[in-house]
Amino acid sequence: MAQEATRTVGLRPYRAADLPLLHQRIFAPYKLAILVDAAAERGVAPDTVLAGGTLSSERVHDPHALTSVNDYLAACENIVAAGGDPQIPLDVGSRLHLSAYGMYGYALMCSPTMRDFFDFAVRYHLLATPMLRLEWRREGDLAVWRFPEIYSDAMSFPARAFLVRQQMMMTATHVRDVSGADIAPIRALFGLPDTGHAILDGRRLGCACLFDQPAHELHYPRSILDLAPQFANRLTHTWLEETCTELIGRTKAKSSLIGEIYQRLMRAPHRAPSMQSIARELGVTERTLRRRLTEEGIRFAEIADDVRQQLSLRYLQTTRMTADDIAAKVGFTDTANLRRAVKRWTGRTLGQIRDAAAKGAQSDTAR
User: Fold this and answer.
1) Any idea what the Cα angle at residue 31 is, between residues 71 and 81, rounded to 5°?
2) pLDDT per residue over 286-336, tens digit each?
3) How many CB atoms lie within 10 A of CB 149?
4) CA distances (Å), 37 to each of 40, 225, 319, in order?
5) Residue 58: half-sphere exposure toward Cβ, Cα within 13 Å
6) Residue 52 phi, psi (nearest 5)
C-alpha cells in the first residue's frame, strides 16, 4: 500500500543515536508524577512505585527535579510487581493531556491542520520523554500511528504491555485534545499477546483491539487529516516550532555537557542558577565545569543568555504578559535589564517586537 512519508522541514526524524541513555537524568518528572498519582488512586503507594529510583515521593512533584528513562521504567515494573490495577496505564494515558508537555504540547495544540499535528508530533517527539518511538503514515483510507519499542530489552513482558497500553490511550487523548472532538480510533493493534485486558482496553479506547500483530498501531480514518484543530493558529505554531527546534537542537545529543546545562536553565530560568550551583548538580567543581565548557568553545554566560533570549522573545510574541512579569520569569533583576538585552539581541524595542507580532497575527487571520 502507498505510504506518505513524514515531512521533515528543517529537522529530520530522530534516530536511535539521538535517544537518551537509560540513566541520564534529563527530563522533567511530569509523566512520572502523573503515574505516581494514578497508581496511588488505585491502591499502590507512591513509595512502592518509586522504589529503586532517584526521586522521592516529594521530589517527583518538583518541576525543577530531573528524572531518567530508567526511573519511569522501574516505576512501571514496581506497579506490575505490586499487582497494580490494569486500569492504571489507561488512567495515565487519559490524564497526560498536551498541556503537560510545555512548548511541545502547546505547539501541537496550535497546529494549523490535523496533518500538521501528526507531522509535528513525530518530528519533535524527543521533547516528550519518549518511552516508545512515534511514527505515522497514510495507508489507503487510514491514518496510522505506529509505536516501535525502544527499551524492550530492559523490561519485563508485563511492563512492556503496560507502556504500550499507556501509549495507545495517551495518543487517543492527544488526538481529542487537538481535534476538539470525541474521535475514536478504528482499531488498536498490539504486537504482543493478549494480557487479558482486551475488553477493558477496547472500552476505554472506544475501538476493537487485536493482538499478536506485526506492530503496535492505532488506526484512524484518513479523513481526520482534513479536520481543523480547535485551537489552530499558524502564527503561534510557527513561533513555538522555532522554540522546539532550538530545544531539540540543544538536547538531541543528550550526553553533551552543553545540553545538560541548557536543560537545567530552560526549566528554571527565573531562578537564574549560578555556574557554581549547576556544577554542584552535575557533580563537578566549578573550575572543572569552566574548563570543560572552554573546551567546547562556549561560556556559561552564553548558554544562560541564549536561554533568556529564546524565552523572552517567545513571551513577548505569544503572550500579553507585562514586561515586569517577563523579566521576573526569565531571571532578569529588573525590566530595564530586559529592555537592554532585547535591544542587544534584536536591535528592536519591546514595543516594536510586539507590534510586529500583532501585525503578523492580523495578516494570518486575514488569510
Assistant:
1) 50
2) 999 998 888 766 778 878 887 888 788 888 888 888 999 999 888 888 999
3) 18
4) 5, 34, 31
5) 0
6) 85, -5
Buried b (16+ CB within 10 A) or exposed e, 243-260: bbebbbebbbebeebbbb
Phi and psi based region of residue 166 (left: phi greater than 0; alpha: psi -120 to 50; beta: remaining): alpha
C-alpha cell at 233: 493558529
Q: What is the pLDDT of residues 203-235, one digit of tens each?
A: 999 999 999 999 999 999 999 999 989 999 999
Residue 67: DSSP 8-state: B
For residue 217, give the 3-state DSSP assignment.
strand
C-alpha 240/C-alpha 225 separation (Å) is: 21
Residue ranges of domains in the chain, CATH in brackets:
16-226 (no CATH), 256-366 (1.10.10.60)
**What single DSSP character describes residue 182?**
-
Which stretches in the chain have pLDDT values below 50? Answer: 1-12, 16-17, 253-255, 363-364, 367
Angle at 109 between CA 104 and CA 110, to 5 degrees: 100
Q: Under a CB-based contact definition with an 8 Å cutoff, are residues 214 and 149 in contact?
A: no
The pTM of this model reads 0.69
